[in-house]
Amino acid sequence: MPKPLTEETLAIIEATAPVVAAHVDRIVPCMYGRLLADPEIRALFNMSHQHGNSPQHKALAGALVAYATHIRNPGVLAGALERIAQKHAGLQILPEHYPHVASALLGAVAEVLGKAATPEILAAWGEAYWFLADTLIAREEEIYAGSEARDGGWRGWRRFRIAAKVPETPEIVSFTLRPVDGGPVLRHRPGQYLSFRFTPAEGEEYRRNYSISSAPDGESYRITVKREPGGRISTWLHDEVEVGAEVDVAAPAGEFFLDPTDKREVVLLSGGVGLTPMISMLESYGGGDLRIVYVHATRNGAHHAMRETPAARASESHVFYEEPSESDLCDGVRAGRIDPTWLVEISDPSHADYFVCGPVGFMQEMVAGLKAANVPEARIHHEFFGPASASIG
Prior knowledge:
Distance between the termini: 29 Å
CATH topology of the largest domain: Globin-like
Shape: globular
C-alpha cells in the first residue's frame, strides 16, 4: 500500500485544487506536450486523441480535478481507478513509465502557474501524484500476475498469428488470432478486450485496444475492426494485414464483462461496431437459462455486422436503422433511434442489468435515459473505446 499523505500535503492540495482546476485546460495540454516529446512514451498513446479539443485531454483534466477534490477520500474514485488500471495493464504500462508522467505534470503546473507554484506546492502535488501512481502500480501488478497465473495466461507481449480475415461489411472486418507458440490461451471474460502492439512500418509503434468478439475457447481470439476515416491502424489492418501476419498481443483485460451469476435478465444495447463485446456475450451465454434482450442501432443494413448471432442466440432481438432502405424495412427493423423509455418498457427494470457499448454520444444518451427511468446505476454497465480516464457520466 502507498504511504498515506501527510496532513500538510492534504491541506495544500485542498487549498490549491481550485487554482489548478481554473487552469487545468492549460496544464493538461502542456503536460502532454512534454510527455509526447519522448518517443518511448509517445508510442504508448493513440495520437489520434492528441489534438486541440482532445477527449483524452478533457478526460485527464476531469480526473485530475476529481482526484484533488476527493483527496481525503480517494475511495470514491475506485471505479474510475479500476478502469484506468485495466487500460494500463492492457497497454503494458510499467512502473518505469510513471516518472515520465510525474516530470511532465509537475513541469506543466510550474509553467502554467508560474511564481504561484511554490516549491511547497509542487512538493505536495508530487507527493499526491506518487500516492496515486503507487496505487495504480500495485493494482496493475495484481492484474499482470493474475493473467500470468491462469491457464493459458501470460505476462507482457505474446506473438499471435492472423489465422483468418473475414469481411463483415464494407467497413468492418473480423480477424481470428492464434498464438504462434501453439499453446493454449487464457479464457477471457465475455466483454473484455485485447491490447496490441503494432509496427506497421520501420520506426513506427502503435498500441490499440479491441474488444474480443467471440466466446472463450482456450485456443484463439477474434477481434472485429471498423475502418476509421484517417485511422492509421484500422486502415493498415483492413488494407495490408493478411492471413499469416504476426502481431504482439497482451492478455485480455477490462472490467466490462458479463458474469451471469445471480442474473435473471440482461439487456445488451449496442451502437455501430460497439456490438463486438455483445457478440462475445451472446456466443457465451445466449440460448441458455439467462434471458438476454439484444438491441442494436446502426445506420442501415449495409453497415450491420454479425447480425446472425443475435438472431440465433438472443431471447429477444430488436434492430434500429437510422437511415433504412426500403429493403431494410421489409426485414422488420425499426426506423429511427432507440428511445430509452421504450427500452425500459420491453425489459424489467426491477432486476435487469443493462450493458451499453457504442459511440460516446450514443452511450451518453442511453445511460442518461436509463438513469432517468430509475434504473439503479449499479446495474448500468458500459464500455468506452477511448481515453482510460474518460467517463460517460
